[in-house]
Specification:
single chain; 21 helices; 2% strand; globular; 521 residues
Length: 521
């Protein structure tokens, strides 16, 4: 009886979903039914990666991050950039490391910011940030960076995608050449100065009252990191062309793996920077948090339009999931592994079904791996214990010598990293567009409302329900639903697909206002 009381919502949810899937089976063949379920789970896996990050940030930090969809979109576009134009990424390593070198000295800058006179504390950080932006605007066009141009069709992302699909990248990519009359060493010095000014501005904007003490050991570590980053920047600049050639020559599977990892790490880094500089000063002002993140979503969309263009893109799948030659489609996992087929033929109910290896298999497996990994991190690790304790009583955890602010920055970075990972994995399956972030964010919010806004398990269940419902509605739009008193089967229009998920959310919230697994406030 006690088990029933503790798990009745989960049990009832499984029973209802199983009954609805059984009813759906009556209206379609076993072949269509199984494929539709797999497609629903695939869509649910992508929605889950966005919803899980959103839920972690909201549940543990009480921050409503409306920029989550834009960060998902940026993850997709960054993956495309690393996969299709690795030369651009190599060219960006040197200026990126020089900018990061300025932030390596943050302990020193925080102490310097704390010592500034009170009269100018609100002015000089803004001036430093403006100076850094001005330097980058003036120096940026002169940097030796090869990049596409969305305004010129022959050099647009669309054409570069076609070149990647036909294997012509290596023959078309050319070394970058610096523009302007400035010596290259002076250009890099200006970029380093911009990084130092930006770091100083960040320290000034995020300063705390009182004197910030920096130990000699911490200062030494900062200086060593500063020197290391500058050394790496010089090394990458010296070996730019060989590194680009090696990267382009890599197998597409390795390029895709590197692209996903780098996009996820870049998303996590961006999330941590957002929390430390923009969100942290607004913890006591939730309305301002919403306005800030809502504005960042618009900024992210405009950045995508300016850099990659307004036209949608497709992203080539890696060779492991794109084989179409001899031996394809595969008839089993072993044959797929040997021939890298894009599809697998499976016999279901006496009929053959084509299952896409990337969409219907790989995405589902990755979603399950992320689900288990994040759950273990939050529930079975020391970091998860510190996070939960910091949410309950941050002052007590601080008294134990644990930097709660740093832990919360890691939480925000984790949430944004999951969204970027979702975008990276979704790019080959759903394509790229400047509207994909808003679409996925809406689906994730509906999934969270169904499962429970602050529940990690609820994010998983809600995402699966939304994905299944969407795909079944799409399928019934082609097959039709046999309803009583109707001579012809009812075929839902495409506009009813998103409306059906909203209707499901309304029904769940009418019965359980906190969602399936949400906590009562």
């Amino acid at each position: 009886m006690e088990f029933w009381r503790e798990h009745r919502t989960a049990i009832m949810t499984v029973i209802v979903v199983a009954a609805l899937l059984g009813l759906a089976r009556l209206g379609m063949s076993a072949n269509d039914w199984v494929v539709t379920i797999l497609r629903g789970l695939s869509v649910g896996a992508v929605i889950f990666l966005v919803a899980a990050g959103f839920s972690i940030i909201l549940g543990l930090m009480d921050v409503l991050n409306l920029a989550h969809g834009a960060l998902f979109m940026l993850g997709a576009y960054m993956t495309w950039s690393v996969y299709v134009r690795p030369d651009t990424i190599v060219d960006l390593l040197t200026p990126g490391l020089l900018l990061a070198a300025g932030f390596a000295l943050m302990p020193v800058w925080r102490q310097a910011a704390a010592r500034t006179p009170a009269r100018g504390r609100r002015i000089w950080p803004v001036l430093a940030l403006a100076a850094a932006a001005l330097i980058l605007v003036r120096v940026g066009p002169r940097l030796p960076i090869s990049i596409w141009d969305p305004k010129v069709y022959q050099n647009s992302p669309i054409v570069w995608t076609q070149n990647a699909q036909t294997g012509m990248l290596a023959s078309l990519i050319r070394p970058a050449v610096a523009e302007g009359g400035l010596p290259i060493w002076l250009t890099w010095l200006a970029v380093l100065a911009a990084g130092v000014l930006a770091a100083l501005a960040t320290a000034g904007l995020g300063r705390r009252s009182g004197l910030v003490r920096t130990t000699g050991r911490a200062a030494l570590r900062s200086l060593l990191l500063f020197a290391l980053l500058i050394g790496l920047a010089a090394l990458f600049f010296a070996f730019n062309d060989p590194l680009t050639n090696v990267w382009i020559a890599l197998n597409s599977n390795w390029r895709f793996l590197i692209a996903v990892v780098l996009a996820t790490l870049a998303g996590a880094l961006l999330g941590g920077l957002m929390e430390a500089t923009l969100v942290r000063p607004l913890y006591e002002r939730p309305i301002y948090q919403i306005m800030l993140t809502f504005g960042l979503a618009f900024i992210g969309t405009e950045i995508v339009r300016a850099v990659w263009g307004r036209t949608g893109l497709t992203m080539p799948r890696p060779a492991l999931f794109d084989g179409t030659g001899e031996g394809c489609p595969a008839t089993g996992l072993g044959e797929w592994w040997r021939n890298h087929c894009a599809t697998i033929l499976v016999t279901i109910g006496g009929e053959e079904a084509r299952i896409r290896t990337y969409n219907e298999l790989f995405l589902i497996v990755v979603g399950l791996i992320v689900l288990v990994s994040v759950w273990l991190l939050l529930q079975r690790s020391r970091l998860g214990m510190i996070i939960r304790a910091g949410v309950q009583d941050g002052e007590m955890v601080e008294a134990l010598g644990i930097n709660v602010r740093r832990v919360f920055t890691l939480v925000f970075a984790l949430g944004v990293g999951l969204a970027a990972l979702g975008g990276a994995l979704a790019a080959p399956s759903m394509g790229l567009s400047d509207a994909m972030g808003a679409t996925l964010l809406l689906g994730a919010l509906i999934a969270l409302a169904i499962g429970g806004l602050t529940s990690f398990a609820g994010a998983a269940v809600g995402s699966v329900l939304v994905g299944l419902l969407q795909q079944f509605m799409i399928k019934f739009g082609a097959l039709g639903i046999k309803l009583p008193f109707l001579a012809e089967p009812f075929k839902p229009s495409p506009s009813l697909v998103p409306a059906s998920t909203v209707l499901l959310m309304v029904l769940v919230l009418l019965i359980l206002p906190q969602g399936l697994f949400g906590r009562k406030e």
